Amino acid sequence: MTEPVEVKIVQPNDDARELDELLWQTLWQPLGFPRDVRHQFMIQGDEIELCAKLNGRIVGGLVAVRTNDKELELRHMAVASPFQRSGVGRSLVAELVRMAASKGCTKIRTIARNTSAGFFRRMEFEKTQQSAPEHPVFLKHGIRFEIMDRNVEPSASGDADKPRA
Question: Disulfide-capable partner of 37 in 33, 79, 114, 116 (CB 3.0 to 4.6 Å)?
Answer without folding.
Answer: 33
